[in-house]
Amino acid sequence: MKSIKFMLLLVAFCILGATTSNGQSQANAIDKYFKQYVDNQDFTVVYISGKMFELFGKLDIDKETLDLDDEEDVEAIMDIARDMKGLRILTTDINSDRYYKEAKSKISTGEYEVLMTVRTQDGDNVEFLILENEANNKIAELLLLVGGDDFVLLSFVGNLDLDKIVKLANEMEKD
Amino acid sequence: MTTELFKKDILPVKDKLYRLALRMLTNPAEAQDAVQEVLLKLWQQGDALQKIDNLEAWAMRITKNWCLDKLRSKHRRTEDLDQAPVQTDGSPSAQQKLEKKETYKKVHQLIQKLPEKQMMVVQLRDIEGMTYKEIEQTIDMPQNQIKVNLFRARQKLKALMTKTINYEV
Amino acid sequence: MKSDMIKQLLDRYFEGNSSLKEEQQLRRYFTEGPVAPELIAYQAIFQVLQAEQEIKLPSDFESNFMKLIETPESETKIRSIALRRPIRLWISRAAAIIILVLGLAWVLQPLNEPTETASIDWSQYEPEDPEEAIEYYKQAMLKLGAALNNGASTAGTNIKHVEEMGQFFK
Questions:
Q1: Which end of chain C is flanked by fewer CB atoms within 10 Å, N or C?
Q2: How far apart are the first and last CA of chain A?
Q3: Minimal Cα distance from B15: which residue of C?
Q4: Contact C145 A67 (CB under 8 A)
């Protein structure tokens, strides 16, 4: 009976996805600056929509589902999911350094604020950027740029709470 | 009513109820209590709930009435507490940001200080996106009155924006 | 052209004559941008309305409430059998999906309009099912958390520094 319920949710979701007009009317950095990466064959592109995040909220997800050791990690991750409106992933392992440098220069720092720039122990370059929503003091978009063996661009769009993200990092470090 | 049905039909509107309670009571902790009390009430109504046409409007109604009772017993409407002062380093863009934050605060305060009827219609229409019919079901206001109150509230918002532009020029 | 239409809608809005759909249009216009310079003044209104609509109860509210009711749950959590499948399978499935998506993108390329303002159709990049989606999301979050931790320790500061930055927004 439960699997039927899930199936129904899934079908409903698919119908919803098929019939609603592109819900990606959200402003995000990729639409603004990186359209050409999306069209570029070198790149893997993934999009998780707001509707999908809503669906996550309805399913009961625990550490078994996510294959994680720590229930607190799961809680932290799912707590952030409630605030998510869209996740966009761009990644490539071709020319990753070049793309990283290019991406960094393309993002207008007038609009996006650099939170942190880091060189990790593995030799990756990482940059965090945020777009603040002044109407509610939340983060409208968080961008993660990674350059190394792979170039990764993560765009988190929603009403993000920096506290929650820090909490996640802290929980992860505890293991 | 089963737990499952409750979860499916009632709990999804809890955020809407919260926003309404928050609008009326302004205090987040009180608003949370309000939602809890309202949900409890609904839970206790049990199977009678299944006969109701528009559960959401019903729940909103109960929330509104509960909050009104609370406010009356307090004999006041708590003023919106000002947020902590915003830091600025004095640089031009920080100054602009500060102005923008001030504008948001002004809009927020204007809505909060509207007379009760206008405040309710702004909450239900401009924030929650309810139809006139749904609003009528929730607060017992005839549709022509809803329109009048919306008009008055929105005119105030417009005036605020015009005033703000003139200041900044 | 577009901003003329918006001006009209704005007028109707302030007169109290706009329909729900029109109000949604206005909200979208002012929150997604870009906004015509002469209309910037009105942006704050719709941004505040949008922000107000996004306020939510804390995440533990529902579970606390259910405990309060103290009803023995007649069923255990709503699990989907599909989600119990070993997640490790996702790698091969994800690879298959990616190949499919890339193949489709390649095939559909001639259909792409070369206009500068053509917006991206993101729906083609969505994973097939929630299992994929949640795995991608989880990986993204783990990467985020790891980068934050890595960065914080590499930079010689600790997480408190980032927390302080968080205070700056309040």
A1: N
A2: 37
A3: C56
A4: no
Interface check for B29 against chain C (CB to CB < 8 A): the answer is no
Nearest CA in chain A to C43: A135
Higher local confidence (pLDDT), B167 or A149: A149
Going by C-alpha positions, the residue among C159, B97, C151 that lies closest to residue A131 is B97
- Count CB neighbours of A125 within 10 A: 18
**How far apart (Å, rounded) are the C-alpha atoms in residues A160 and B63?**
28
* Contact predicate B157/C16, CB 8 Å: no
Q: B119 falls in which pLDDT band (50, 70, 90)? A: very high
Contact A87 C170 (CB under 8 A): no
Q: Report how far Cα B106 is from the mean position of its chain's Cα atoms.
A: 16
Peptide bond into C130 cis (omega under 30): no
Neighbours of chain A (3+ CB pairs under 8 A): B, C
Q: Can you tell me the distance from the alpha carbon of C147 to that of C160, in angstroms, rounded to the nearest whole number? A: 15
Q: Which of A92-96, B27-31, B92-96, C20-24 has the lowest mean pLDDT?
A: B92-96
How far apart are the CA of B98 and the nearest CA of chain A, in angstroms?
10
Confidence of residue A129 (pLDDT cuts 50, 70, 90): very high
Q: What is the pLDDT of residue A121?
A: 74
**Residue A19: predicted pLDDT:** 41
Number of other residues whose CB lies within 10 A of the CB of residue B160: 18
Chain B residues inside the 8 Å CB shell of A135: 104
CA distance C120 to chain B (A): 28
B73: closest CA of chain C, how far (Å): 25
Residues of C in contact with A13 (CB under 8 A): 130
Length of chain A (residues): 175
pLDDT, tens only, A5-17: 555 555 545 544 4
Mean per-residue pLDDT over chain A, rounded: 84
Average pLDDT value for residue range B14-40: 95
Confidence (pTM): 0.68
Does residue A133 sit at the C interface (CB-CB below 8 Å)? yes
Amino acid at C28: R
The secondary structure of residue C124, as a DSSP letter, is G
What is the distance between the alpha carbons of residues A118 and A127, in angstroms, rounded to a whole number?
6
How many H-runs (helices) and E-runs (strands) does chain C carry? 7, 0
Tally of residues, chain B: 169
Q: Which residue has the tokens 């399913």?
A: A59
Which chain C residue has its CA at the smallest distance from B104's CA?
A: C44
